[in-house]
Structures are given as C-alpha cells and as structure tokens.
Amino acid sequence: MDRNRCILAVEDPLSEAMAHKLLRHCCIVPVTVFMGFGFGHLKKRAREFNKTAKNFPVFLLTDQDSPAHCPPGIIDKWLRCPRNEGFIFRVAVIEIESWVMADRKAFASFIGVNQSKIPENPDILEKPKEFVLNLVRKHGKRNLRDPLLPTRGSTAHIGPEYNAVMGEFVYQQWDIQRASGASPSLKRAIFAIQRFKSLRV
Known about the structure:
By secondary structure, the protein is α/β, with parallel strands linked by helices.
C-alpha cells in the first residue's frame, strides 16, 4: 500500500483546507478529493471508502456536531463493520472551527481580537462555528463581516465567502504545532495519521 498518497473525503472547503494541512504535515498527498457538502454524503459512502482503503489509503474528516455523538460511536455507526487499516477516519471535536481556533495566536490576529477571547481549549465549545460568527459580529474586523456573516434576511447560517475566507486563513496563517497544543482532538488526529504513515507493509 502506498502510504504517501490518499483519497480525501471531507464535508466542505474549510474541512478540505484543514485536511490538506494535516496531510502535508505528515507528507501525504491527496490524489482525489470527495466533497460531501455536509456529512450526509460522507455517511452514505463511508462503507465504500472503507472497502477502497483495503488497497488505497482514504482519509475522511467529519465533524462531531454534538456532544451527544461521541467520535467512536460515529465511526461505528457509519461503518457497521471493522475499519480497514488504510482508512483514516477522524472526527473533529466538536466542529472543524474548533481546530481552526486552536491556533489562538494566529486566529485572534486574523479576526482582530485579543487572544484572551479565544478559549484555551476550543474543543470544549458546544457550538464552535456559532462562537466564531458571534466573535466576528461583536468584535471582528469590519472587512470580515460581509464575507463571514449571513446577510440580513438570509436563511443561510454563514456568509457567502465563509468557507473561502476561513480556508485561506488555514492555508496561509494557521500553524499546526500551535494548534495541536490547544486541541486534544486535533492532536489525536495528527497522531493517527503519523501512526498510519509509519506502519510497515
């Protein structure tokens, strides 16, 4: 099995940006990206990804979304069978925004707030995305409000450029070493990828 390449499956562009950073850190290159646009499509294809991973590595990244859904339970429910060695299935606690905020220094500078406004362990937040939006709404830079916040009267939960702007932050400014020190779930994800990479055939 080629442990330097993988298929990548993610919920959205922000998760894709995060996954690319994690994989690059571990010297793994995604050759194909499956964008689920939410967890539903990922869940439907999870067993298929697990079968594919017998011969070619697959990295799937999804959100926990609720404290009531523990990551091991999500994996068991989605697969309903043993996970193959080549299937790296990781769940961000609680949402990918927790990992984004975990680089507290860079994220505070990006939003334009004091670092003290970012939780020392963002994994404990029950609604990280909502926390980010409220932070931008109340304290963030003015030039971030239009792209990140939903327009008045819109049924959307995020702004029109939310994923693009947040993803660009991850690509350009987010530091994996600083972030892994503040997010236990991120640290576990990095360890899982490194462990897979180090296994002998």
